[in-house]
Specification:
The strands form 2 sheets. The protein has a 6-stranded parallel sheet with strand order 3-2-1-4-5-6, sandwiched between helices. A 3-stranded mixed sheet has the order 7-8-9. 54% of the residues lie in helices and 14% in strands. The longest helix has 29 residues.
Length: 286
């Protein structure tokens, strides 16, 4: 089995780390909030003093943090992953941080350290069940070497060189935010026209949004949006998409519009709610 350093034990990271423990790997863990290490150390994981310490003890280090700033905090400087990584170490960056953050990470790691970027598609249930979709960017041989490890977390798909995983995740998230925004606006328009909510769902059942409308209908009707992925992080992801698109010279006006809904709700204090609550935000006047 492999000794894995795991950095970042939030809602997703803690579940992913638990999957690796269940698969029999030795785990060295670190989190800024030390208390979050306790459930895993009680199951046999070893706490690290800092990310550098975790990297020194491990064959492979996984980072799963909130945003590019957090990735810099845990990867750079003498106490960061780069400070403890060696030529024999592989770093697998699994956060949603965008390709520019992955490029920065590559620039601070020691020259011989392997790097894969492997962000995930899925939420808490998928992380717990080990059914995440994992977009892997990096050299073929390195991706092949660590595919068995990543398979404990879900289904890895090798999408290209370093940075490709981060890019693929932004492409996937573009569809999520666009669909939610379109669904919310369609329902708001139907109600604005005086159609009943039941009739609105009947209409949507005949459109390409049928499956999403049916999936989201219970939450809309109950006004309950179980927390899986905070709206504030969805806003961050949407900003990563628009920033990366601008850098690539791609016009993303629909995604920009979807981002404004997330930004408005976040600034109104909805950032802690699930990102799907953007539907409630759009429908609150109806």
């Amino acid at each position: 089995m492999t000794t894995v350093g795991f950095i970042g034990l939030g809602a997703m990271g803690s579940r992913m780390a638990g999957r690796l423990l269940d698969a029999g790997h030795e785990l060295v863990v670190w989190n800024r909030t030390a208390e979050k290490m306790t459930p895993l150390t009680e199951r046999g994981a070893t706490p690290a003093a800092d990310p550098a310490d975790a990297a020194r003890r491990a064959e492979v280090v996984i980072t799963m943090v909130a945003d590019p700033a957090a990735l810099q905090d845990v990867s750079e400087g003498p106490n960061g992953v780069a400070g403890g990584a060696a030529d024999s170490t592989t770093v697998i960056e699994m956060s949603t941080v965008g390709p520019s953050a992955v490029s920065r990470l590559a620039s601070v790691l020691p020259a011989g350290t392997g790097l894969l970027d492997a962000p995930v598609l899925g939420s808490l249930a998928e992380a717990e069940a080990g059914s995440l979709r994992i977009f892997v960017g990096g050299p073929d041989a390195l991706a092949g070497r660590w595919t068995p490890l990543l398979s404990a977390l879900g289904s890895p798909i090798h999408v290209g060189p370093v940075g490709s995983g981060a890019s693929a995740k932004l492409v996937a998230n573009t569809t999520l935010f666009g669909v939610l925004g379109t669904l919310g606006e369609a329902l708001a328009l139907a109600l604005g026209f005086g159609l009943s909510r039941e009739m609105a769902f009947d209409v949507l059942a005949a459109t390409p949004l049928a499956s999403q409308a049916e999936r989201r209908r219970p939450s809309i009707e109950k006004g309950e949006y179980p927390p899986r992925f905070p709206l504030s992080l969805a806003r961050k992801d949407a900003e990563l998409i628009t920033d990366a698109a601008a850098a690539a010279g791609v016009d993303m006006r629909l995604t920009q519009a979807a981002w404004t809904w997330l930004a408005d709700a976040d600034e109104a204090g909805w950032g802690h709610r699930d990102y799907s609550a953007i539907l409630a935000w759009l429908l609150q006047k109806h």
